[in-house]
Amino acid sequence: MKLHALRLIRGLFPKVAILGICLCASWPNAEAAKCLFVSSYHQGYAWSDGVERGLRSALNGQCELRQFDMDTKRHKNEAFKKKAALEAKALIDSWQPDVVIAADDNAAKYLIAPYFRDSDIPFVFCGVNWTVEEYGFPYRNVTGMLEVAPIHLMLKKAVAVSGKRALYIGANTLTEQKNLRHFRDAAQELGIELDGELTATTDAWLTAYRRGQGYDFVVLGSNSGIDDWDANRVRRELMTVSRRLSVTNHGWMMSYAMFGLTKIPEEHGEWGAKTALAILRGLRPADIPIIANRKWDVRTNEPLLGTAGIDLPRSIKAKVKRVE
Amino acid sequence: MNKPDARGVFKRWEKCVACAVGLTLVLGSGGLVVRSGIDAAKERLVAQAEIAQQMLTQRLDSSDAVLTSLTGLYQASEELSSTELAALSQPLLSDYPFISTLSYLTWVPRSERSVFETSMRRAGFTQFRIRDYPTTASKLVESGERDQYLPISFLEPLEPQHARFLGMDLLDEPAMAKAVESAVASGEMRGAMSKELSPGESGYALMKATYFGHFAPETIEERRHQVSGAFLLVLDVQHMLNDIQDQYPGLGMVLTLSKELADKDHSLLGRMEPKLPQGQDLIPVLHVNRILNLHDERIELEVFSQPSPEDLNLGVALLAMMLTAIFAGSLLHALRNRRIFHLDRQAAQDAIFREKERAEVTLQSIGDGVITTDTNGLIQYMNPIAEELTGWSNEEASGRNFADAVTLSREGQRAPLVDPFKHCLEQFQQSEDLLLIRRDGHATAVDHRGSSLRHRDGSTIGAVLVLRDVSRERQLAHELAYQASHDPLTGLSNRWSFEARLRQALDSSRTKGISHALCYLDLDQFKLVNDTCGHSAGDQLLKQMAEVLSAQLRDSDLLGRLGGDEFGALLFDCSMERAEEIAERLRRVLRESRFRWEDKVFEISVSIGIVPIRSDTGTLGDVQTAADLACYAAKDEGRDCVYVYQPGDEAIAQRHGEMQWHRRIKVALDEDRFTLYWQVMQPLDPAHNPTQIHEFLVRMLSPTGEIVPPMAFIPAAERYALMASIDRWVIENALEVIGKIDAHEHRDLFTINLSGQSMADSELADFVLDRMRGANVLASRLCFEITETAAISSFHQAATFIERLRDAGCLFALDDFGAGLSSFGYLKRLPVDFLKIDGQFVRDITRDPVDLAMLKSINGIGSVLGIRTIAEAVEDQETLDLLKTIGVDYAQGYHIGRPEPLPEAFKARAIQSA
Fold it and tell me: What residue of A is the nearest CA neighbor of B156?
């Protein structure tokens, strides 16, 4: 009997071993990788929606995706922002995602920088404007794509059409403050005289716009952060007062600007997704340098141009996307 | 002739060579077919290699076109932003999927490094630094101080895993730097290994320089001075090879950089293993190399594939090997046959030589004289016996005409044959007695055989004559003939020869009208002498009587002893008057003579009957009967008288005893007063002749049931033509007896005697066959004994009878051989199975050398003719032993077994069988 049992064990051992090896090998696949997308803003915000669209398209179901919106565009006070960041952190702690994609500056500022510096959880940021120096990036667990605008190119084209005096108008937000700073640097390099007005209301924004008609052209920053923004009123007002060229880098501002080199939010989402997948495949965040977006569209607003009586050069019109 | 041993036709080394050659041919044929298949596969591989080369060249040309477009656009544009480059690059990469990455390298002098790096960081690449060309994939090191840099400032597609290439300085890598320098100096596309930049393990980078200004400078110096950067394409070599293999799945490829600049470790650009089914390890792999020249670089394409089993034509190869094997086998077989033919011919020649020697020796030692001639009858050869017979030596006779050396004459004729050569050739089948007259005149009785010598094609090339000294045989034959025709006691003609002469006389009377006379003489006192003085006295009396009578007759007349004390005198060409006169003289002389025996003196008288033989005389039987009647008539008239028979004298005959016998026999036949005896014949060599033979004998019963001895009624029955009836009775009853014998005992043979009268019965054969069927007797168990006298007297009827019954399966024995005519010549014409040697030659063989010689001669002839011999009258063991020694097959006589009544014999057999 003993001999028989030994033979049985000997016969079963290789099979059990093989079964074990197979189970172990298939273990990581038994539970899909988890990706958490933390948006600084909210759904319905055009930029954020574009980022999310790019992200989901690029992930294409290759990891289990959850999304957390911090909604810090509509709630600007610091407490809300910190509270949203803590909620995101709590989610990260409880869900333990394999990678976190964080969009735009507030997520970087309120979530990554205070809580996940050099942590074991990799982070991919996107939509962070111009620079990450203020957040101390890069960390060993953080990489991503900066949101930059083709300021030089846009200013060169505006100068070529109108002149070298310009007014920058935007919402009085952290992002716009950074944008204005970069515009001023660029204008200085190009020899452009640039003034700036950051506003908090629609009236103030319209007042600034009317004042801008005294410059050679107007640079429209983002209106995100102006809580009482009245789009119809603004459009009607612009159709009456616009006489000078207005330019912008934001696609959603093309309803109010005549010419734009607009950034593409999907590019950020796609990069965030690609980088997250690369990390899931084994690449470390430190091996992936932080890069900047490099895509934009050339767009014109023909009604406003017609109202102002401005005829853009043929070289610009040949490539533009027209906005009705 | 000794046939050569087929196994030994070839020597061992020849077999080895043949096997080696055959094996080489078989393998060679198969190899040729496989070789042709391989060649075809090689040709196909060459064609595929050409296509692969074309595809690779096409891709290199396409890359050149892409680089030319990019640099051209760059030169023509005032400023080409990264967005515009990306917009340009993406469709290019989509259209040319074998290009893995497209980069732009910015030419940065050391003095402008800082500004350049700052501008890149301000553009959003916050970590941008000019870095060394990586030696490892995971670590990027900031470049040290150099005069100039060529970092990657644009990369498409920009993927996370490629992003770290941004800022990588290509001038840091010697091979790449050399390619860059060449590209800058030439303004043309140049290539270099780009293992680190490639998506796979290896890759190849193509680059083309851009210059400040709208047009590329014309001189090398200007180009070096005005260089602003370069476009770089990294080719996905595996993808390129995949494209080819998609088209040719069985193709394997290795792409290597073969110029000296290529580091050995980096020389492999790509490798693609063929997609082959398993289990083709034994099939060789074919290789073809092609060179792709790219300016000062040589890209070597090695294409290889493994032919499929179908390509190798294995089936055809096998068939070719089989056909070659058959051909080689046939060739070897033909060679073997040829060798055997030579050996056969040599063996045949040896055999012929040996046969010739043997023939010569045989001819030298043969007992017959052999003479060969050419077609003209000129003697070519005589053997020693022929020399002795002719008196001519071989040397003397050679070249002479046959007739000069060989003189032949018929026995009894003095004149020699005119053309003995022709006679021998034409008459050799006829039995004739020839004498060979020797050179010294001595005559030798010879038998001759002549035959033409013919060539294989049938043409005559000469003749061979065989002369056999038959002096001894002929002497014996003469003696046998004499004994067959003469009464051994008196020396007178016996009944057979007397009857033969009588038949001749009858013929001559009928044909020539000559009258003859026949006298029958019967001694009146013979029984008295026999009874009183014994048989010896009787014999002596008969001898004396023969001498007395002979002296009274002409030489031309014939005196014969017809049996017992009966004599006959045939007086040729004799009238009845003269015949009466002679008969009277004979009676008187005998009457006057006296017979003395010891102290007794007997007067002798004779009764004589005379019958005329004329042209109207009836048959032989008629005249014999008439003579017999006349003789009895003379006895009836008181003996010692002469009675002349006259036609119509029947009344006289009826009063006489012979006629009484005739009546008695007929009555006995009617009353079935006959009975069967049999006497056994013993095989002397049972192992050779296992069959025992029983001879049926007939006995007549008197009305009172007493046995009448055969010699009392058979002569009368023969005389009065009653033997045929008696024979039929015997046949019928004997067959009935045989049929009753146990059907399982088929070994024994039974013989039935047939008389001469039965031989003349044309219906007897049907009678025998009918009775055989009726008694259910196998013909092979039946043998008929006929005397040679009976057979010869009715030869044609006898021959017909014998032929019919032999066809049915019956056997025949020639009875009393030697007692009658005994011509050996008849033996050849009478198809008999047994030869019963007459007892007179057997009885005294232990004492009489002549009888022994005669018996041996008869037995020898029987042996030669394939006839088994039976010795009659064996009366003692000594005789039996001698017969065994001589080789006689069977023996019969009182010593073996007496004639016995049939019922007792039956009982004996039954007991024996049980």
Answer: A294
